[in-house]
Design brief:
By secondary structure, the chain is of the alpha+beta class. The protein contains eleven helices and 21 strands. The strands form four sheets. Strands 1, 4, 5, 6, 8, 9, 10, 11 and 12 form a nine-stranded mixed beta sheet that branches. It has a six-stranded antiparallel beta sheet with strand order 15-17-16-19-14-18, sandwiched between helices. A four-stranded antiparallel beta sheet has the order 3-2-21-7.
């Protein structure tokens, strides 16, 4: 992978009264914040070792710019289809802000040499800055790497040891940047979209959580009919208390104030025996949401709501009980190997089938496009 240092724009923390409030509004207010002096431009080009500390663990990666041609050459692997409306929205935001305010989250194989370099640098240098988010009890810590030797070592590792990476979050940002780059390529010698802001994390530094569904579509079918149709697809057991599935091909369902455990019948799974990867999200989309509830496009249908696995079951219950026509499904998390294999084979994961942690923040480090 070709990565490059960049002259970052970062927040002036002296002017921030509440990190949660400020960074929670950057997506909409970045242009105003920048004009008002809330952001500073770094004096030199750098890359940044990026550590996120949560109550559960620590995640360590790298913030740098990546040559957009890596995406165009398919060295940055996709696992999701983008929508033209989403690409258009991202293009508008980039052109309006003249900045990229949130890095694309990329996964790469673990490289011990890179990890050792990061750990050594962290021990020997003070952080560039630390942002604490009280609402999440997390810390985002950045070490600025601006000396030529260290940058070159990191670039060489990426060039030799990391030939490809995988998008965890940011498909539309990549697609929009590639479109803008291609359109300006023949018109300008200095193309501001030649590089894209990226956050690289080894696969062992990211976690995939379940991504659960609340469906508001029981108005056309009675509960008795719905359960009867489900019984043709699943073995169904009553659960005494709220629970998430414990293994693949199990789903838990919250319906009419009761919890159920659903296990796919062999007759259903047999239909997919020739597929290398069979995800519960795909099975649910096709056999239940589409064929029983009439939801043709789970990505755009307004009856679909998605709840990350980091939210509590209490929250899921409360949201489901807002309407008598709602049902909730909890899925077992997809595995990292499922995503990587799907991307390598040019396939597509079901919409909203993965929730990655840690999450990237808007406005923590910004790629300036105006000064190029």
């Amino acid at each position: 992978m070709i990565i490059r240092p960049f002259q970052a724009v970062y927040p002036n923390t002296d002017y921030i009264a509440s990190n949660d409030t400020f960074f929670g509004t950057v997506k909409e207010e970045y242009v105003s914040y920048k004009k008002s002096g809330f952001y500073i431009k770094a004096s030199q080009e750098s890359v940044y070792i990026y550590r996120i500390q949560t109550p559960h663990r620590t995640h360590t990666g790298l913030l740098a710019c990546t040559d957009i041609n890596e995406y165009l050459k398919d060295n940055i692997k996709k696992h999701e289809n983008t929508l033209p409306a989403g690409e258009q929205r991202q293009m508008y935001m980039m052109m309006n802000r003249k900045s990229i305010v949130k890095p694309v989250l990329l996964i790469h194989p673990k490289v011990k040499k890179l990890n050792d370099l990061f750990e050594k640098y962290i021990k020997e240098n003070e952080p560039f800055y630390v942002i604490h988010f009280e609402s999440e009890n997390t810390k985002h810590i950045l070490w600025e790497v601006n000396d030529g030797d260290s940058i070159e070592k990191i670039q060489q590792i990426f060039n030799k040891k990391i030939p490809k990476s995988y998008i965890a979050d940011g498909h539309h940002r990549c697609a929009a940047t590639a479109l803008l780059y291609s359109r300006l390529k023949k018109k300008k010698k200095l193309n501001p979209y030649e590089n894209i802001l990226t956050a690289f994390f080894p696969e062992d530094q990211l976690e995939i959580y379940d991504y659960n569904r609340i469906v508001d579509a029981l108005g056309e079918v009675s509960l008795t009919q719905f359960m009867a149709k489900l019984s043709k697809l699943f073995y169904i057991d009553f659960l005494e208390k709220p629970a998430k599935p414990k293994s693949k091909h199990e789903i838990t369902m919250f319906l009419n104030k009761e919890w159920f455990l659903l296990k796919w019948k062999p007759s259903v799974l047999k239909k997919y025996k020739n597929k290398k990867i069979v995800l519960d999200a795909s099975l649910l989309d096709e056999n239940v949401l589409n064929k029983i509830l009439g939801i043709k496009d789970v990505k755009t249908d307004a009856r679909m709501k998605y709840i990350s696995g980091t939210e509590s079951l209490k929250s899921l219950i409360n949201k489901t009980q807002k309407s008598a026509t709602r049902v909730a499904f909890c899925l077992f998390p997809a595995q990292m190997s499922d995503l990587l294999t799907t991307a390598d084979e040019g396939g597509v994961m079901p919409p909203k089938s993965t929730w990655f942690e840690p999450r990237m923040k808007n406005g923590l480090i910004v790629q300036d496009l105006a000064g190029i």
